[in-house]
UniProtKB/TrEMBL annotation:
Cu cation binds at residues 66, 70, 154. It comes from the Bacteria. Pfam families: SCO1-SenC. CDD domains: SCO (cd02968). Belongs to the SCO1/2 family. PANTHER family: ELECTRON TRANSPORT PROTIN SCO1/SENC FAMILY MEMBER, LINALOOL DEHYDRATASE_ISOMERASE DOMAIN-CONTAINING PROTEIN. This is SCO family protein. The keyword Glycosyltransferase does not apply. One of its GO terms (molecular function) is metal ion binding. It comes from Paraburkholderia dinghuensis. Disulfide bonds join 66-70. Residues 1-20 form the signal peptide. Gene3D superfamilies: Glutaredoxin.
Length: 192
């Protein structure tokens, strides 16, 4: 009986410590990871946006049939990662979400990744549902409109999410590296 009582007292002492740690598990209100976004990447892997929590992530939107701004956006993000002058494993991961989930299946996503020689360990080209695409675009500040069956009008936004999914830097510069954005990314990367 005495052992049971000691066990219960010990449990009472440990439980508050466990619950005190719980607030660190909660996300900030402005976190993109609050969005219940289910994604599928170029390798067919299903995952939730919130699973990227814990490290900075560069995010943008694109579509695979784009022949102008999207390839330029991908190249710009690649230049940003190289401008950091850190080993590839230390650079932030990249998440690209398609604005055309109806056409951007795993095969098309993989073809773009291969054409740009994007390492799937660091680059995730993804699709989600049409409704979730609109919600994510609105949160990120991407405006898009379908003009024809395979053509979209859209702006380019490259954003940096901190480890908790908050947008901490953003640029619309594509085709060249935005020094202020690189500086913001570098500041986050050195913390990890």
């Amino acid at each position: 009986m005495k052992r049971i009582r000691l066990f219960l007292y010990a449990l009472l002492l440990v439980c508050p410590a466990l619950f005190a740690a719980a607030p660190s598990l909660t996300l900030p209100g402005d976190s993109l990871y609050q969005l219940p976004l289910a994604l599928q990447d170029q390798q067919g892997r299903q995952f939730d946006l919130a699973s990227m929590r814990g490290r900075p992530v560069i995010v943008s939107m694109f579509y695979t049939a784009c022949s102008a701004a999207c390839p330029l956006t991908i190249d710009t993000i690649d230049q940003i990662r190289h401008a950091l002058n850190v080993p590839d494993h230390a650079a932030p991961s990249v998440l690209l979400v398609s604005i055309d989930p109806a056409h951007d299946d795993v095969v098309n996503l993989a073809a773009v990744a291969k054409a740009h020689q994007l390492d799937p360990a660091h680059w995730r080209l993804t699709r989600t549902t049409a409704g979730d695409t609109m919600a994510f675009a609105a949160t990120l500040g991407v405006a898009y409109r379908q003009r024809t069956n395979a053509d979209f009008s859209h702006n380019a936004v490259i954003a940096l999410l901190d480890e908790n999914g908050r947008i901490v830097a953003r640029t619309s510069v594509i085709g060249k590296v935005d020094p202020a954005f690189v500086s913001a990314v570098r500041e986050r990367v050195v913390r990890y």
